[in-house]
Amino acid sequence: HPVTYKGGSIFQGSFMPKMNQIRLGYTVSPIYAFVYNANYFEYISEYQDHTIGMNFLLKRWLNHDSQANLYAGIHGGFYKNSFSNGNVGHLFFMADWESRVHYTMAKVKRFIYNGENKHNLTLRYGFAPFVAGMNELQSWLIIQGMYVEDQFRQVIITSMLRFFYKNVLWEIGHSTRGQSYLTMMVHY
Prior knowledge:
Blueprint: E1 9-16, E2 19-29, E3 32-41, E4 47-62, E5 66-80, E6 85-99, E7 102-113, E8 116-127, E9 138-148, E10 155-165, E11 168-175, E12 180-187
Antiparallel strand pairs: 1-2, 1-12, 2-3, 3-4, 4-5, 5-6, 6-7, 7-8, 8-9, 9-10, 10-11, 11-12
């Protein structure tokens, strides 16, 4: 959820043993939010960065039984790794579609630092094993493929369980690399 409802705040953290991402955000209007991001990738020379920027809801499609969104974001800040430090920029595009039973998401993110462009790509598909009421625990089974440039040029496949209850979302899973995965998102 790069942009939430007007006046909404968000904390999101995604944690794997060698790759962590944290985001704090405040949605100013239904179409844009201010954000702070922190990223850490141990495999990429212990790369870490801190950025601030904006996320945008470019388009939303509300259908009778589904919703789709198109988002973009631009962030700037600083990075450091084992070899250097300096300025960094992020640019991302994300699209998602979900119904009460199916969920899909695609996100491409570009990291611009040290005169180089690095990217990662994330694709997801999920389904709900049962349809719960709006004020009940929502459960999803999700498969995620993630390609992070400079991480052995492999796709990381992670199967996960997603739960959503009121304003809290959490995901737990395990990747084909043998790594545990945890995401926590809170809207308030």
